[in-house]
């Protein structure tokens, strides 16, 4: 193959000076001059132009007289489709490669160029490479070795158990990857970060999945024990599926021994927690109103509720006839008694059969108002545009009670809403109404007026509250105060019972509401019905409305340890800090925790009940005995063993008098006991945990249930620090939904979808990089565009690491140059590295991973690629293989490589390990052994000398970087106007208003060829001259411009063509070119390098 060898060398060298895109040690060859020039004429460089170990060539723009390599190493592109945007970027170092191609000599110096070489591929090939790396970790048992060898203290991040139900979503990925970033960082710090992943395997979601998978006949034949076995099978199958996905994310943990809430040892520990709380007096059984889900057939805790937008209730105003006036009722108003009613308002008409009182606020002023006129012929529905849908009842249309008691401050609002006049007949304080009595409109029983609490306000309604102690917490407390009957004529399916009379059998939320409203209207009690939009509790599993219903349940009373819990909250570090206020308000205002559920799939409440009286039988001996059985046989034993077998010997003679209970524990009690089952029982873990990390919704869920159970039994919070993250939204900020088609599946992000063009597979590291990029303390966004951006950042980082590897292919630790002997530019580079490593470490310590992302990205693109790498290529490629300048640069590159690869390892473990496996030199540990993996090398210790860079020198280099930026602008102008092709074609003149800066830079611009710190080397020009103001007037610059430097005054930049001849080897212009007889086309530096190289070659040949 005929090659134009000069072009061969220079094209490769030019490319390398622009960015690290060399894919092999072989020279990049141009396939024939004819092909080359024909392709130049088409203004494109195609993949077939460049060959070398199957690489994708650098995208570039070729003109007839110019080959332009414009992108820095951190912005490598892999396809021609990006070439247009590629051309718009600011150029660095354009190379005049083919102006007079026919006159080029035979390129005899091409073998003297030290090109980069590495087998580390620019292409991640994550679908293959990441699983290979994970297999390497498992084969070498890296995690186990670190846990054994690390000498630091234990670090325990306790895993909040996800439900073993369904596929993983992006929220799961965010959560587990955040945990893994933290754990890997702690491992690199030398601590023993033993992570035990867990799963919540009980609960209604799993039970419902099982039931939904069965036909009606099978469900009818289902016993509790059969259901439990099917649920366990489903949960364990899901655990296996989710475990595979979590491991593919690159998450390290004891996956072979996770904690499962259905394991016998876990269930036994949970029984012990329940027993301790019971013995301490914090658990009791009582008849109280609880959130009840008719769709699930069980009681619910607050954490199992959600409040969707858009709920509208059927609210009513109704009047109850007063039958008796209390002793405090004003004498002057008693004459209105015969025609007097109490006006109430409720959003739950179905609770009227449970009414036991009407409550007032003793501090509010109430008024007796007279209806001025009725609303004849207005008994139909009324639709007012933009207002609520309303219907007047006979109580207003044809009122039987003309005088109503309402809160005085609401009279105006009620007149407007009811459409009637209300004339005030008299006023009184609410306290005057206490112990008056009224007649229930549906069953004619009498009930009292009572004093309620501060929950009675004038914000809505009438100021009088219909009170049903069996259907509301505040009503219940008021009922306890006055000894009111607890009426709750509703069954577990949400239907009225026989106790509700003619309403029996009706669904309270549908037919029951209709029937109650109709019955009230027939009794002339209904004033008005209207739709009312408000927040209403729904079952978070079935997505259907719940009700308040009084049932006998087991409760955990917070009164005995609420103060202690609040004190513990203040001792915990909350990230972000507002998390403390959130959980504090929830804990301080929380009512008793209903911990019993009427379902089969769960941990049984170990209590026996007398078959006749229903009285519970439970004590420490019973709990210990049941706990022992469950620890050996699992909780299924509660269902398949007889009562006599479950009772300890002391009570076995009474077995026939007792039955075992059917209630199971709330799943939040399950997961809230994990500190006892896992932290206190697993070797390598510690209680309290160093960190709990979950979504922000867990302030009312797992964080709170864990806090309460731990404080109640051990007097202390189970965590030292709690970190919360937000929810994952699409890139437009909308909640993800299958119906909207905006769901991002982490599996597809990693592996790609069916259409790889539309849904490419990015690998786990890109997903992890996204996690590090977001401020997770609020809601975060993800989408195809965001993922493409993350992929671009990943490629830039990979390209930078590849550059470092490829330029260290011939370097060993023995070649290291001592710090005091390094040039100033190298010391400055290490100073920057030390600062960036401190910043990255601080970001990990403070869990501010977005700072890691920002710092790393800026450092790679700005500080390294656009500056140090750009300047370094000259001495790396043409400075001489074993020269001091090249070895000093390689020393700095090695430091960067060894620091950066470990700094990114917590976030990008696969990339970091891939780089480590391609290290061209061995890294030895303190004991002399080889660090076979990046995590065995631990976190890099920064040399204190690197930080010793003086303030004066730091300021000087800050000025140099500013000067470099402004010089580039004028160089670009000269290039655009065809004065120069490459920056090496230029001579730069600089004049400063700051005399100190001028003097410092004048020293750096003195004549000489070899100095690395020479200003011309830093500016990538052939010559630089510093001028005084007077000298500036004598210079005839072809192009010039003035600038203002930050903190360093004014700068004038002038550009002319460089003096002297062009060195064939390095392309710098020098007056020395042509002065050497043996190598007339070389500059002084290249002449020395070539002579040394040729001399050593002759010696080797003679040997």
Distance between the termini: 33 Å
Profile the largest sheet. Answer: 12 strands, mixed
Strand fraction equals 15-25%
Radius of gyration, taken over Cα atoms and rounded to an integer in Å: 40 Å
Which structural class matches the secondary elements?
A: alpha+beta
Overall outline: elongated
Key features of this structure:
elongated; 38% helix; 1103 residues; 4-stranded parallel β-sheet; alpha+beta
Question: How would you describe the overall organization of this protein?
Answer:
The chain has 1103 residues and is an alpha+beta fold. The chain has 34 helices and 41 strands. Strands 11, 12, 13, 14, 15, 16, 17, 18, 19, 20, 21 and 22 form a twelve-stranded mixed beta sheet that branches. A four-stranded parallel beta sheet has the order 5-32-33-25, with helices on both faces.
């Amino acid at each position: 193959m005929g090659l134009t060898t000069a072009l061969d060398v220079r094209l490769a060298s030019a490319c390398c000076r622009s960015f690290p895109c060399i894919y092999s040690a072989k020279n990049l060859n141009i396939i024939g001059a004819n092909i080359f020039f024909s392709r130049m004429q088409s203004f494109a460089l195609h993949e077939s132009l460049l060959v070398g170990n199957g690489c994708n060539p650098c995208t570039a723009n070729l003109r007839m007289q110019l080959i332009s390599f414009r992108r820095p190493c951190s912005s490598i592109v892999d396809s021609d489709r990006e070439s247009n945007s590629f051309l718009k970027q600011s150029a660095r170092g354009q190379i005049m490669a083919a102006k007079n191609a026919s006159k080029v000599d035979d390129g005899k110096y091409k073998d003297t160029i030290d090109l980069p070489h590495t087998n580390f591929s620019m292409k991640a090939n994550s679908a293959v490479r990441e699983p290979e790396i994970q297999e390497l970790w498992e084969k070498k048992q890296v995690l186990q070795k670190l846990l054994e060898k690390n000498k630091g203290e234990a670090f325990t991040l306790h895993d909040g158990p996800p439900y073993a139900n369904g596929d993983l979503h992006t929220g799961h990925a965010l959560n587990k990857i955040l945990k893994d970033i933290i754990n890997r960082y702690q491992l690199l710090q030398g601590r023993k970060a033993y992570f035990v992943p867990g799963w919540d395997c009980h609960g209604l979601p799993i039970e419902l999945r099982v039931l939904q998978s069965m036909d009606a006949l099978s469900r009818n034949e289902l016993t509790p024990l059969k259901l439990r076995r099917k649920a366990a099978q489903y949960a364990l199958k899901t655990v296996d599926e989710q475990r595979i996905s979590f491991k593919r994310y690159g998450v390290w943990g004891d996956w072979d021994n996770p904690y499962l809430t259905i394991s016998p040892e876990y269930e036994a520990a949970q029984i012990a927690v329940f027993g301790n709380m019971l013995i301490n007096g914090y658990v009791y059984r009582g008849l109280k109103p609880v959130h009840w889900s008719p769709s699930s057939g069980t009681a619910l805790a607050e954490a199992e509720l959600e409040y969707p937008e858009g709920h509208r209730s059927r609210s009513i105003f109704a009047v109850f006839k007063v039958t008796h006036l209390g002793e405090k009722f004003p004498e002057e108003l008693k004459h209105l008694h015969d025609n007097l009613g109490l006006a109430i308002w409720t959003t739950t008409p179905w609770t009227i059969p449970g009414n036991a009182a009407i409550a007032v606020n003793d501090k509010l002023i109430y008024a007796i108002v007279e209806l001025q006129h009725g609303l004849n012929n207005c008994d139909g529905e009324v639709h007012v545009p933009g207002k609520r849908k309303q219907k007047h009842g006979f109580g207003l249309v044809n009122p039987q009670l003309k005088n109503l008691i309402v809160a005085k401050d609401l009279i105006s609002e009620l007149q407007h809403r009811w459409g009637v006049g209300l004339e005030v007949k008299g006023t009184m304080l609410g306290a005057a109404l206490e112990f008056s009595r009224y007649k229930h409109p549906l069953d004619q029983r009498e009930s009292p007026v009572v004093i309620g609490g501060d929950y009675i306000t004038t914000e809505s309604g009438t100021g009088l509250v219909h009170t049903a102690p069996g259907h509301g917490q505040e009503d219940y407390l008021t009922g306890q105060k006055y000894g009111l009957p607890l009426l709750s004529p509703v069954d577990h399916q949400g239907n009225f019972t026989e106790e509700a009379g003619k309403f029996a059998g009706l669904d309270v939320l549908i037919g029951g509401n209709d029937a109650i409203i109709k019955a009230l209207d027939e009794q002339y009690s209904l004033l008005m019905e209207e739709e009312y939009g408000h927040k209403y509790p729904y079952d978070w599993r079935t997505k259907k409305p719940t009700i308040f219903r009084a049932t006998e349940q087991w409760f955990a009373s917070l009164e005995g340890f609420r103060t202690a819990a609040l004190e513990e909250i203040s001792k915990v570090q909350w990230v972000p800090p507002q998390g403390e206020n959130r959980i504090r308000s929830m804990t301080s205002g929380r009512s008793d925790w209903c911990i019993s559920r009427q379902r089969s799939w769960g941990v049984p409440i170990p209590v026996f009940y007398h078959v006749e009286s229903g009285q519970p039988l439970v004590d420490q001996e019973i709990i210990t005995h049941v706990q022992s059985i469950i620890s050996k046989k699992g909780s299924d034993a509660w269902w398949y063993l007889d009562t006599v077998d479950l009772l300890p010997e002391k009570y076995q003679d009474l077995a026939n008098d007792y039955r075992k209970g059917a209630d199971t524990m709330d799943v939040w009690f399950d997961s809230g006991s994990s500190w006892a089952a896992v932290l206190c029982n697993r070797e390598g873990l510690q209680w309290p945990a160093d960190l709990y990390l979950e979504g922000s919704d867990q302030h009312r869920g797992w964080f709170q249930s864990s806090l309460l159970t731990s404080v109640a039994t051990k007097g202390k919070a189970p965590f030292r620090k709690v970190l919360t993250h937000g929810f994952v939204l699409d890139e437009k900020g909308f909640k993800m939904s299958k119906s909207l088609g905006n769901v991002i599946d982490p599996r597809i992000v990693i592996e790609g979808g069916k259409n790889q063009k539309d849904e490419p597979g990015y690998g786990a590291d890109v997903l992890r990089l996204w996690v590090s990029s977001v401020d997770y303390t609020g809601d975060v966004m993800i989408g195809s565009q965001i993922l493409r951006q993350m992929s671009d950042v990943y490629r830039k980082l990979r390209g930078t690491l590849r550059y470092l590897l490829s330029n260290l292919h011939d370097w060993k630790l023995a070649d290291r140059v001592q710090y005091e002997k390094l040039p100033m530019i190298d010391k400055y580079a290490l100073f920057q590295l030390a600062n960036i490593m401190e910043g990255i470490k601080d970001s990990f310590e403070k869990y501010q991973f977005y700072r890691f992302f920002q710092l790393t990205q800026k450092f790679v693109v700005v500080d390294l690629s656009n500056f140090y790498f750009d300047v370094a290529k000259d001495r790396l490629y043409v400075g001489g293989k074993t020269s001091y300048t090249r070895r000093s640069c390689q020393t700095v590159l090695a430091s960067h490589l060894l620091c950066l690869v470990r700094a990114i390892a917590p976030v990008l473990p696969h990339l970091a390990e891939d780089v480590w496996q391609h290290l061209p030199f061995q890294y030895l540990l303190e004991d002399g052994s080889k660090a076979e993996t990046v995590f065995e090398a631990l976190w890099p210790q920064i040399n204190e000398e690197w930080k010793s860079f003086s303030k004066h020198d730091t300021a000087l280099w800050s000025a140099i970087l500013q000067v470099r930026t402004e010089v580039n602008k004028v160089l670009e102008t000269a290039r655009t106007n065809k004065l120069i092709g490459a920056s090496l074609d230029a001579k730069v003149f600089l004049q400063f208003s700051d005399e100190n800066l001028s003097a410092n830079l004048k020293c750096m611009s003195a004549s000489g060829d070899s100095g690395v710190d020479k200003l011309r080397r830093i500016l990538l020009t052939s010559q630089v001259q510093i001028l005084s103001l007077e000298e500036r007037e004598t210079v005839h610059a072809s192009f010039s411009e003035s600038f203002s430097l930050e903190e360093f005054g004014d700068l004038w930049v002038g550009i002319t063509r460089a003096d002297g001849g062009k060195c064939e080897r390095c392309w710098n212009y020098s007056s020395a070119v042509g002065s050497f007889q043996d190598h007339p086309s070389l500059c002084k530096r290249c002449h020395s390098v070539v002579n040394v190289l040729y001399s050593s070659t002759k010696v080797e040949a003679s040997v």
